[in-house]
Design brief:
Number of strands: 2
Shape: elongated
Strand order of the largest sheet: 1-2
Structural class: mainly alpha
Helix content: 55-70%
Radius of gyration: 22 Å
Distance between the termini: 67 Å
């Protein structure tokens, strides 16, 4: 299918698909007239890419794990392992954000936002 049809079926722009092709997330061949031609399986794959991005996976992570997931005999098990790893990353980031929030809260009403509460210069 040509890029316009792929864009229509996935809800992505042609520029997005071209970018994904440039970074190796999707591949198409060139027809004799120079148009891109994508296989039908590009549609569910691009939906997968968009869903993975929504779940917090970077394009690099999607590219790195995409091939192994397609070849995994039990992709549900492989996906669950990736989700567990991502949950650990999210939990660590939440802990960092909680510390940052507490630090910001300690600076409220201090007269100087660069000094923590109870600190003097």
């Amino acid at each position: 299918m040509r890029i316009g049809e792929l864009a229509a079926q996935t809800g992505m722009s042609r520029d997005t698909i071209r970018f994904y092709e440039k970074v190796g997330l999707v591949t198409g061949s060139r027809l004799a007239n120079g148009y891109r031609d994508f296989p039908p399986e590009a549609v569910p794959w691009l939906h997968y890419v968009r869903t993975a991005q929504t779940l917090g996976f970077s394009l690099a992570e999607i590219a790195r794990h995409g091939e192994e997931l397609r070849e995994a005999p039990d992709s549900a098990e492989a996906l669950s392992a990736l989700f567990e790893q991502k949950i650990e990353v999210v939990d660590a980031r939440m802990a960092e954000l909680a510390i940052l929030r507490a630090e910001l809260a300690s600076r409220v009403n201090t007269g100087c936002p660069l000094h923590a509460a109870g600190q003097t210069s």
